[in-house]
């Protein structure tokens, strides 16, 4: 078994009025791709920002531990954390259009992260930036290195972001919906690139997405989040063949690309009724208001995670009865 | 190289626009000044006290003040075409010489004031943005509001009262110690001493503007995604502020600074009068009082030239600061 690189234990993130991430635990093994899926607002980005210790000012980690490489990140001071950022843990953001500084050439922006962590002259940093641009398959890298972000397409900008993120060969790369803003063909290219780099540079990737197609193709393990909590954890194969949590089942039946020999013209796509907002401030299972299997006992407490195998967790006590009627969940959703 | 091309393109566009602008300014001002009652001959005659109808008429004839307005304009433009600004009846010397005497004084005063205003404004604005909503921000906001609303002549007078009269640290007027034989560094230091108060009075209003502008611009830039990217790289807060936030925030500030150069010339009239600083502002004031319109036109022409040059400089700075501009 490969070693643990990152261990998040009972992480709770709070704003003054809300706790968008609650009691979240997961771990990342060296070199693997862990996908975190969940609909908009389920707390994926906040979790990622907490790992980087870059939460917005109003937000704070209320409790929990984030163990990276045997150190609790929450116990580090600002300086120690700065040394980790960009060098050991790097992050790619959701919006390639606005995540690059518009008035600085991409070569300089890549060089900057190198200079921050390694003693490099301006010329050496530039050379490395060109190498990195080649690494992320940007054509004519020698010319492109002096370009400004507005001269690049969205896909190219995301490649530049990736080049910047992998510049110091991080052990962990957090990619927060790296392809949401890109069109489908570019999406696949960028994700393939990420996967190749992961293998070449032996880094672990936390891939945040709400696209189950992405999970199926690129993830080693999956964590499904709902309303700031982990509701299911599985290997992709298990998840798609045998989803346990009613929310996961709903997600799957709402994804057109995953149903074999299913075309959206042949039948309706199901949706999960209700919205995530309606789950706020409830006691009991957060998914209860939208769950077709809900029963009275679901309102008493948040269902604990039940381990079916060490890698298979689900936060619903009624999964065996659900399994008896395989398609029940999304038929009635 | 693309930087140079961008800059060259900006420069050419500016030059093409400058010529018609200046011509328009001259013609418009010429007619505007004709509306003022009286002319140089009247004032000269009034000051002499013993003028007769004939001597005034003779004066007018000598300086061409009796010919029709359009003819006067044609003469003036004709002079301009030969790079001559005409002759001042009042000072009895070519306007160009007169202006050349006074220009350096005003230019240094303005340059120093602008430099103080921009540097101090950016530093204070950065502080305010950094402590937004907290005590330092509040205190500085009050001060900037004060300096924004107090007229510069009053600030000038108060500075004189405090630093020249009460404390005796700095001279209250003039541009250098009279009759001093200083050379080199001591001479520069002497001039600097005389410069401090006028430059400060001229600058304070603009310090207030730039501080507020910097604060607003930095707060806006701070919330943008690329700033988060910069932090994610492991840069220090200072590095992020200096290289990412400030650089983007400077763009609106340079625009304003360019627009303020014209206004500063106006402010210089007041400040130069308060501190008896020998500059263009005071010359303009004297020219108005003496109805010496050739001098005034010369000064106006030069000011507009100055503003155009300043704007071109701002365009250049912009082309350098913001790569997106040259793309157009
Ligand atoms: N500045 C903030 N103040 C208050 N609440 C916030 C703030 N930022 C985020 N939240 C809340 O935190 C929750 C989680 O947000 P987060 O950005 O982590 O969602 P996400 O899973 O990344 O969604 P998406 O797929 O849209 O990116 C949301 O419900 C949101 O309302
Ligand atoms: Mg997000």
From TrEMBL, chain A:
Coiled-coil region(s): none
Protein location: Cell inner membrane
GO BP annotations listed: amino acid transport; peptide transport; transmembrane transport
Sample GO molecular function, one term: ATP hydrolysis activity
InterPro entries on file: AAA+_ATPase (IPR003593), ABC_Ni/Peptide_Import (IPR050388), ABC_transporter-like_ATP-bd (IPR003439), ABC_transporter-like_CS (IPR017871), Oligopep_ABC_C (IPR013563), P-loop_NTPase (IPR027417)
SMART domains, sorted: AAA (SM00382)
Domain ABC transporter: 6-252
PROSITE patterns in UniProt: ABC_TRANSPORTER_1 (PS00211), ABC_TRANSPORTER_2 (PS50893)
Pfam families documented for this protein: ABC_tran, oligo_HPY
Keywords recorded for this protein, A-Z: Amino-acid transport, ATP-binding, Cell membrane, Membrane, Nucleotide-binding, Plasmid, Transport
Topology in the lipid bilayer: Peripheral membrane protein
Cellular component, GO annotation: plasma membrane
Domain of life: Bacteria
Role: Probably part of a binding-protein-dependent transport system y4tOPQRS for a peptide. Probably responsible for energy coupling to the transport system.
Family from the record: Belongs to the ABC transporter superfamily.
Name of the molecule in the record: Oligopeptide/dipeptide ABC transporter, ATPase subunit
Organism whose genome encodes this protein: Sinorhizobium medicae (strain WSM419) (Ensifer medicae)
TrEMBL record, chain B:
Xref: Gene3D superfamilies: MetI-like (1.10.3720.10)
Any one Pfam family match given in the protein's UniProt record, by short name: BPD_transp_1_N
PROSITE patterns attached to this UniProt entry: ABC_TM1
Keyword DNA-binding listed: no
Entry GO CC: plasma membrane
Record-linked InterPro entries: BPD_transp_1_N (IPR045621), MetI-like (IPR000515), MetI-like_sf (IPR035906)
Spans traversing the lipid bilayer: 15-36, 107-127, 139-165, 192-213, 249-275, 295-321
Major localization listed first in the record, in broad terms: membrane
GO BP annotation list: transmembrane transport
Keyword RNA-binding annotated: no
Compartment list: Cell membrane
Keywords: Cell membrane, Membrane, Plasmid, Transmembrane, Transmembrane helix, Transport
Highest taxon listed in the record's lineage: Bacteria
Topological category with respect to the lipid bilayer: Multi-pass membrane protein
Record-annotated ABC transmembrane type-1 domain positions: 103-318
Annotated signal sequence range: none
Family: Belongs to the binding-protein-dependent transport system permease family.
Protein name as it appears in the record: Binding-protein-dependent transport systems inner membrane component
Protein's organism: Sinorhizobium medicae (strain WSM419)
């Amino acid at each position: 078994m490969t070693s643990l690189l990152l261990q998040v234990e009972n992480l709770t993130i709070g704003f003054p009025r809300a706790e968008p991430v609650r009691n979240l635990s997961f771990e990342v093994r060296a070199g693997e791709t862990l996908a975190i899926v969940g609909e908009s607002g389920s707390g994926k980005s906040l979790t990622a920002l907490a790992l980087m210790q870059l939460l917005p000012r109003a937000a704070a980690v209320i409790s929990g531990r984030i163990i990276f490489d045997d150190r609790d990140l929450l116990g580090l001071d600002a300086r120690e954390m700065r040394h980790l950022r960009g060098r050991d843990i790097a992050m790619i953001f959701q919006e390639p259009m606005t995540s690059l500084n518009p008035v600085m050439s991409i070569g300089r922006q890549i060089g900057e992260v190198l200079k921050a962590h390694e003693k490099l002259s301006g010329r050496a940093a530039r050379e490395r930036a060109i190498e990195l641009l080649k690494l992320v398959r940007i054509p004519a890298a020698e010319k492109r290195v002096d370009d400004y972000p507005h001269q690049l397409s969205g896909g190219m900008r995301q490649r530049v972001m990736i080049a910047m993120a992998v510049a110091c060969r991080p052990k962990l790369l957090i990619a927060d919906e790296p392809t949401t803003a890109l069109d489908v063909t570019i999406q696949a290219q960028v994700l393939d690139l990420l996967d190749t780099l992961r293998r070449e540079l032996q880094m672990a990737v936390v891939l945040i997405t709400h696209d189950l197609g992405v999970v199926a193709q690129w993830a080693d393990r999956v964590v499904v989040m709902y309303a700031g909590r982990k509701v299911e954890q599985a290997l992709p194969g298990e998840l798609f063949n045998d989803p346990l949590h009613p929310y996961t089942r709903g997600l799957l039946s709402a994804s057109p690309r995953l149903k074999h020999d299913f075309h959206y013209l042949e039948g309706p796509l199901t949706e999960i009724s209700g919205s995530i907002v309606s789950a706020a401030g409830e006691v009991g299972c957060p998914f209860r208001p939208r769950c077709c299997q809900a029963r009275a006992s679901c309102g008493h407490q948040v269902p604990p995670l039940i381990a079916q195998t060490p890698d298979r967790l689900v936060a619903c006590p009624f999964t065996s009865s659900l399994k008896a009627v395989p398609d029940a969940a999304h038929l009635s959703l | 190289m693309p930087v140079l091309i961008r800059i060259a393109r900006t420069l050419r566009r500016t030059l093409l626009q400058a010529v018609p602008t200046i011509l328009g300014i001259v013609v418009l001002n010429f007619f505007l000044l004709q509306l003022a009652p009286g002319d140089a001959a009247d004032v000269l005659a009034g000051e002499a006290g013993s003028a007769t109808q004939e001597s005034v008429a003779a004066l007018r004839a000598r300086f061409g003040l009796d010919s029709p307005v359009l003819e006067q304009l044609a003469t003036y433009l004709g002079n301009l075409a030969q790079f001559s600004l005409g002759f001042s009846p009042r000072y009895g010397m070519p306007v160009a010489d007169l202006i050349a005497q006074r220009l350096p004084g005003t230019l240094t005063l303005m340059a120093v004031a602008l430099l103080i205003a921009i540097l101090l404004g950016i530093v204070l604005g950065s502080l305010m943005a950094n402590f937004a909503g907290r005590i330092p921000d509040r205190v500085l906001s009050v001060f900037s509001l004060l300096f924004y609303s107090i007229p510069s002549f009053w600030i000038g007078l108060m500075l004189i009262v405090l630093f020249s009269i009460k404390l005796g640290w700095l001279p209250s007027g003039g541009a250098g110690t009279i009759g001093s034989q200083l050379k080199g560094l001591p001479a520069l230091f002497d001039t600097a001493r005389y410069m401090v108060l006028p430059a400060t009075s001229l600058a304070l209003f603009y310090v207030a503007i730039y501080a507020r502008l910097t604060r607003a611009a930095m707060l806006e830039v701070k919330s943008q995604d690329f700033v988060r990217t910069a932090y994610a790289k492991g840069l220090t807060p200072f590095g992020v502020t200096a290289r990412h936030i400030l650089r983007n925030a400077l763009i609106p500030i340079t625009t304003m600074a360019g627009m303020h150069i014209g206004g500063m010339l106006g402010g210089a009239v007041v400040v130069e009068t308060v501190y008896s600083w020998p500059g263009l502002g005071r010359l303009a004031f004297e020219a108005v009082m003496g109805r010496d319109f050739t001098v005034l036109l010369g000064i106006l022409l030069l000011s507009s030239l100055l503003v155009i040059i300043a704007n071109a400089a701002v365009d250049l700075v912009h082309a350098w600061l913001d790569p997106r501009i040259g793309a157009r």
